[in-house]
Amino acid sequence: MESFEQLLAESTKIHGHICAGQVIGVRMSMAALDWIGITDPKGADRKKLYVLVEIDRCATDAIQSVTGCSLGKRSLRWLDFGVMAATFVHLETGRAVRVTAREEARALSESYCPEVVEKYQRQLEAYKVMPLDDLFVFQEVKVALRDCDMPGRPIRRVQCGKCGDWVQDCRELAREGTILCRACDGERYYQVVESDRSAASSTSS
Question: What ranges do the domains of the chain cover?
């Protein structure tokens, strides 16, 4: 694996700017990979690694950059818990570690880089040198991964009985004998607006 400096530079390039979250994500990933025995996440070990992230913040971009895992590859899964934490799973051995960023590290940054006046810059620099146990909590865990959440072709595709959309990866719901997508079951995040274009399409058909 590349050095911390190389990985941070690569992550910063992908994310668009350097920030404390990039440092946290890179160091978290490096420590977790070492913990579970992954040495080449983007090469020989790329099919052995699965990551679950609990927050959609800067550190998640760094985790993706270091591990090579992504939503599109289905090797990275986002759980909307709002916690600065991620769990790294070795798919062959089953060994897994959940790593959580310590809230106390924010205040501790003053003792590591007191010469840096600006708070966020001080945290950024301190997180680079802070001992791992001051920066993170490590928990060895067991993770039960469902077949339908794993990389590879979809296990099944079914059609929503209400709107007609096709649902993959076991995300459908059965309601009174009818298969529904989550939007039709009440989780719709959008409202359909009748536009000139959609009206014209409807008329032509």
Answer: 4-149, 157-204
CATH code, residues 4-149: 3.30.1330.130
Among 34, 60, 59, smallest CA distance to 49 is for 34
One pLDDT digit (tens) per residue for the chain, 205 residues: 889 999 999 999 999 999 999 999 999 999 999 999 999 999 999 999 999 999 999 999 999 999 999 999 999 999 999 999 999 999 999 999 999 999 999 999 999 899 988 989 999 999 999 999 999 999 999 999 999 999 999 999 999 999 999 999 999 999 999 999 999 999 999 998 987 665 555 555 5
pTM of this structure: 0.89
What are the strands, taking DSSP E only, across the chain? 49-53, 76-78, 85-90, 96-101, 136-141, 157-159, 166-168, 173-175, 178-180
